[in-house]
Amino acid sequence: MTPKAGYSGGCQCGAVRYQAATELGYPHLCHCRMCQKASGNYALPLASAKRADFELTRGEPSWFHSSDLVRRGFCGTCGTPLFYDIPGTDFINVTLGSLDEPMAVQPVAQSNLAAKMPWFHALDVLPVEPDGDEAERTEAIRSSNHQHPDYDTQTWPQEKSHD
Asked: Do residues 64 and 143 lie in contact, with contact meaning Cβ atoms separated by under 8 Å?
């Protein structure tokens, strides 16, 4: 499948895929407690896509109304957080980690700093674990990987060849 101009992304298992045909607006890290819970992380990177330029290309997300104003879309199969949606607006927010190329969108701001972890600034000075000699384990994971690749596919899961 040839990707359209813009951005594509989806969940870890490949059941839900989407495309945004134009630039993503206001990429930012939200530190609010709802985003922490929704992502299972310390912050949630988000950016907006105009609804007119956004489409689901595979599957349908499940939705959870985290408040009366907001619903959050996720894959009902693998649980990947995908969307922060305010129904009735002309945009939908996508989670930047669900993009096929997450490095292509750099956050320009942060929001809801009252809930930001007070030690976040110290992460860059933490000791770094060296890359171990885990070639056997790495190969076992690679050869049994069930994660959808970071590009659109015609079908998923892909059929295994029967040599």
From this structure: no
Query: What's the domain range around 118?
Result: 7-143
Q: 88 in a domain, yes or no?
A: yes
The answer to whether position 109 is within a domain reads yes
Single pTM value for the model: 0.86
Written as six digits, the tokens of 102 are 């997450």
**Nearest Cα residue to 48 out of 92, 2, 88:** 92
Question: If you search the block for the tokens 């990707």, which residue do you land on?
Answer: 3
pLDDT tens track, the chain, 163 positions: 344 569 999 999 999 999 999 999 999 999 999 999 999 999 999 999 999 999 999 999 999 999 999 999 999 999 999 999 999 999 999 999 999 999 999 999 999 999 999 999 999 999 998 876 777 877 888 788 788 878 888 877 766 554 4
Cα angle for residues 110, 121, 150 (degrees, 5° grid) = 60
CA distance 78 to 140: 21
Distance CA 71, CA 3 (A): 27
- The rounded Cα 138 to chain-centroid distance in angstroms is 23
Cis amide prior to 3 (ω within 30 degrees): no
CA 13 to CA 61: how far, in whole Å?
Answer: 12
Q: Which amino acid appears at position 31 of this protein?
A: H
